[in-house]
Write a structure and sequence with these properties.
By secondary structure, the protein is mainly beta. It is built from one helix and 18 strands. The chain has one helix spanning 3-16, and strands at 19-21, 26-27, 32-35, 37-39, 44-45, 50-53, 56-57, 62-63, 67-69, 74-75, 80-81, 97-99, 104-105, 110-111, 116-117, 122-123, 128-129, 138-139. The strands form four sheets. Strands 1-4-7-10-13-16-18 form a seven-stranded parallel sheet. The chain starts with a helix and ends with a strand. The relative contact order is 0.12.
């Protein structure tokens, strides 16, 4: 199937599952959406990213391969995830990052690879997340 027809098919699939993408945004075809999602303008979502249901991703976010956002996650504008702790390295060195159900990340947060952010956790704006965050906690700094 040509790239043009893949885009047309994806457009109708997004419409059916209530996935709103504000243009311009770069979303790889291998991204898995749960439904009822919103992706802000100027965001980039890399290969094989998994996004659950009811997830909102703000403008200018970078989400590379190896990130999983569970259901009901809220990502504010300019949030950056990384997957390579010591770039440039080959893919075998990349680490997975998981944001659990209901977690919220404030504007400008940077998440280092290999992190798990717990359920309903809140990360303050401008934070650099270098350690796992337990469920139901508020972290900033």
């Amino acid at each position: 199937m040509s790239a043009f027809f893949q885009k047309i098919k994806r457009f109708f699939d997004f419409k059916r599952r209530n996935i709103r993408v504000w243009k311009p945004a770069n979303i790889y075809l291998s991204v898995k959406f749960g439904g009822n999602n919103s992706v802000g303008s100027f965001s980039e979502i890399g290969e094989n990213v998994v996004i659950g249901k009811n997830v909102r991703i703000g403008a200018m976010c970078f989400i590379p391969e190896g990130v999983c956002l569970e259901n009901d996650v809220w990502i504010a504008p300019r949030v950056t995830f990384t997957n390579d702790r010591f770039p440039p390295s080959d893919r075998s060195m990349w680490q997975m990052t998981t944001v659990k159900r209901g977690a919220r990340l404030g504007a400008g947060v940077t998440v280092i690879p290999g992190i798990t952010i717990g359920e309903n956790a809140l990360v303050g704006s401008g934070s650099v997340v270098t350690k796992d965050i337990p469920a139901n906690e508020v972290w900033a700094g």
